[in-house]
């Protein structure tokens, strides 16, 4: 059984502009110790997916269906108290902007300690000792100073290390990283990425790594899922995805990205903008921007097709473009 | 930290000097001759001149200011023109009464206001929140002298439960408290409304920040999140508390007059009508000093609760 299994997850927000369908049937699995990259443009539903895994969406304005099985327990069926026991303990969240995700009037040390006290019930002195170990774990040059510092007193890279230390405090098995390097300077980005990869391997963490940077995904992930308008439109092992992108949107993403040894090949941005989630089209959500669009694309939602073993894509053209395996995979999921 | 406190104290001195100049100028530039109020109508020009000289009103203004300031620093606020009692004694008694009233009204309004504001924020959009907002709006929009009169009509005249006038020291503590009840309520209404609204919006601002989601994401419960929100809102709330306390101390002229509460507001009112310059100066100066010290205290407390303010 996998550590995390998300099945047909749907999340809708009641807003003044109508019902925003942020997730429209997201399905994926993640085993212990593996890294899944969640790719996609802004607004495709990556952050909403991570929050849904921890059951963090406020119940008052949100409708959620489907399953989020975390160690075989469905988060969507747990009550708030049971969910709290999971958050930070079984799965932790690392945010994009540590400066907004850390409490500005608590020291880094206090923010680590409070997590330990919450889940481990440690005595303050023990919690402090453990906090020091965690700071060492995230490789900070001046650990004691770091523990005593408020978030505004340290650099962006150090803040993100603090955030990671908090996330790892109670030894979770799953780390949900929401663009953890995007807000940082380029050189610091590389350091944090290295740190995360190193920690992932040493601690055997499973990671859902949200990014819109294909290069970052290639560095860290075993597998990648590409999201578009609240659906996973393609999923494959990372090498396979780069070798054989099967969905026109994935191809577009790759052409819009700078890659090593790519000199001479022009960068082609994807024209147009993602669809309005409050008024999704009946057929393929990418149809308005797709260079290969056909009549049936506008009327019929494409099912997931198997491109190869472990490689699926949600596009009507997969059977004819990639030959042999035109069997729609799991029609119940689509 | 202590160096910081010392520097802030030194910085308060020019502010106080400025306040004293304004107080002095304000009173001396006001139209009307202070002597006309105290001299008999049939006093001769020579008598008036003599009295003028006795009070020092014949000197140039800067000289009058320095003489006044030197005496003030020594604790001599002069004598009341109307009663001939030392001003310091009158101001001291009045300040004591006002302070008692301001403290009790603050206790009432701060406690209830902060509580209601937080409650409303954590129940945003629900019935309770809307009810609190309505209470807050009534609190800030009812003129408090009018509220005072309504309270008197209801509790003193109709029900005859509580006294409407004065501060009786003779009847002992219980009598004093009974006299305090109505003016306290009247005085507390506005700060209660202001605080409810400020606290609610401060807490809502904080609840909307990402770190609150991060706190929930690490498994903290409602009480722990609440503590974080309160600590984050504290600096902003503290500022409003300081201001409101200052207003209650000095801005209660109407309430004190309606209830004949012998505080600074009442004394100031009296001094204005009697053109009693030394008393007016004394009251305003003492209140201004209180304001400056209050601001200083709030500033210092803020550096204690808010690590983002540099402590050097
Ligand atoms: N609480 C909410 N209420 C209403 N709409 C929401 C809410 N949270 C997210 N959305 C909407 O859901 C969609 C998906 O948002 P999400 O934050 O998951 O995007 P994302 O893929 O993480 O993008 P980015 O790369 O910008 O972080 C967006 O259109 C967003 O406006
Ligand atoms: S289904 Fe049609 S519109 Fe959608 S990606 Fe495939 S070809 Fe393009
Ligand atoms: Mg996001």
Describe this structure in words.
The complex is a heterodimer of chains A (334) and B (312). Chain A is an alpha/beta fold and 334 residues long. Chain A has one domain: P-loop containing nucleotide triphosphate hydrolases (Rossmann fold, 3-Layer(aba) Sandwich), CATH 3.40.50.300. In chain A, the strands form two sheets. An eight-stranded mixed beta sheet of chain A has the order 6-7-8-3-9-10-12-11, sandwiched between helices. In chain A, strands 2-1-4-5 form a four-stranded antiparallel beta sheet, covered by helices on one side. Chain B has two domains: 72 residues, no CATH class; 216 residues, MetI-like (MetI-like fold). Chain B is globular and about 85 Å long. Chain B starts with a helix and ends in a 7-residue tail after the last helix.
Decide which structural class fits the backbone of chain A.
alpha/beta
**N-to-C CA distance of chain A:** 22 Å
Give the CATH topology of chain A. Answer: Rossmann fold
Inertia-based shape of chain A: globular
Q: CATH top level of the largest domain in chain B? A: Mainly Alpha
Task: Tell me the helix content of chain A.
Answer: 25-40%
Shape of chain B: globular
Uncertain residue ranges of chain A: none
The CATH architecture of chain A comes to 3-Layer(aba) Sandwich
Number of helices of chain B: 13
């Amino acid at each position: 059984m996998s550590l995390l299994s998300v099945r047909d997850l749907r999340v809708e927000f009641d807003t003044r502009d109508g019902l925003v369908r942020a997730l429209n049937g997201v399905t994926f699995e993640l085993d212990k110790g593996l890294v899944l990259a969640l790719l996609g443009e802004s607004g495709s539903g990556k952050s909403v997916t991570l929050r849904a895994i921890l059951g963090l969406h406020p119940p008052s304005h949100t409708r959620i269906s489907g399953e989020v099985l975390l160690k075989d327990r469905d988060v969507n069926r747990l009550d708030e108290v049971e969910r709290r026991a999971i958050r930070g303990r079984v799965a932790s969240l690392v945010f994009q902007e540590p400066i907004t995700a850390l409490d500005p009037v608590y020291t880094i040390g206090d923010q680590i300690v409070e997590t330990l006290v919450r889940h481990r019930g440690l005595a303050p002195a023990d919690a402090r000792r453990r906090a020091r170990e965690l700071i060492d774990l995230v490789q900070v040059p001046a650990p004691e100073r770091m523990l005593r510092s408020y978030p505004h007193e340290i650099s962006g890279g150090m803040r993100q290390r603090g955030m990671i230390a908090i996330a790892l405090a109670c030894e979770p098995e799953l780390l949900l990283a929401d663009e953890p390097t995007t807000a940082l300077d380029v050189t610091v980005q590389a350091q944090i990425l290295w740190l995360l990869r190193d920690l992932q391997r040493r601690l055997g963490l499973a990671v859902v790594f949200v990014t819109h940077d294909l290069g970052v995904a290639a560095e860290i992930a075993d597998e990648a899922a590409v999201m578009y308008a609240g659906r996973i439109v393609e999923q494959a092992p990372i090498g396979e995805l780069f070798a054989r992108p099967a969905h026109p949107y994935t191809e577009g993403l790759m052409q819009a990205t700078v890659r090593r040894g790519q000199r001479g090949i022009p960068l082609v941005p994807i024209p147009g903008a993602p669809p309005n989630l409050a008024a999704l089209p009946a057929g393929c959500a990418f149809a308005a921007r797709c260079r290969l669009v056909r009549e049936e694309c506008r009327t019929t939602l494409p099912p997931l097709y198997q491109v190869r073993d472990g490689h699926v894509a949600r596009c009507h053209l997969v059977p004819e473009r990639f030959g042999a395996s035109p069997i729609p995979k799991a029609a119940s999921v689509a | 930290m202590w160096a910081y406190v010392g520097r802030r104290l030194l910085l308060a001195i020019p502010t106080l000097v400025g306040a004293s100049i304004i107080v002095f100028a304000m009173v001396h530039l006001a139209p009307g001759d202070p002597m006309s109020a105290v001299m008999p109508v049939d006093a001769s020009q020579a008598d008036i001149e003599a009295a003028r000289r006795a009070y020092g009103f014949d000197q140039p203004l800067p000289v009058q200011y320095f003489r006044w300031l030197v005496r003030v620093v020594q604790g001599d606020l002069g004598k009341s023109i109307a009663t001939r009692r030392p001003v310091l004694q009158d101001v001291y008694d009045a300040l004591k009464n006002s302070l008692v009233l301001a403290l009790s009204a603050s206790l009432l309004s701060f406690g209830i206001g902060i509580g209601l504001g937080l409650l409303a924020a954590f129940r945003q959009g629900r019935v309770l929140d809307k009810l609190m907002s309505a209470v807050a709006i009534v609190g800030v929009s009812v003129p408090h002298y009018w509220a005072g009169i309504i309270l008197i009509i209801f509790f003193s005249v109709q029900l005859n439960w509580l006294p409407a006038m004065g501060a009786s020291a003779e009847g002992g503590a219980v009598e004093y408290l009974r006299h305090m009840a109505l003016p306290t309520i009247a005085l507390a209404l506005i700060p209660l409304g202001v605080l409810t609204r400020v606290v609610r919006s401060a807490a809502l601002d904080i609840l909307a920040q990402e770190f609150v989601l991060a706190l929930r994401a690490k498994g903290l419960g409602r009480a722990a999140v609440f503590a974080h929100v309160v600590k984050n809102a504290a600096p902003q709330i503290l500022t409003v508390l300081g201001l409101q306390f200052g207003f209650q101390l000095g801005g209660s002229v109407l309430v004190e007059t309606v209830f004949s509460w012998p505080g600074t507001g009442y004394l100031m009112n009296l001094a204005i009508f009697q053109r009693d310059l030394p008393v007016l100066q004394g009251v305003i100066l003492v209140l201004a000093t209180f304001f400056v010290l209050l601001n200083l205290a709030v500033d210092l407390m803020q550096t204690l609760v808010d690590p983002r303010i540099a402590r050097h």
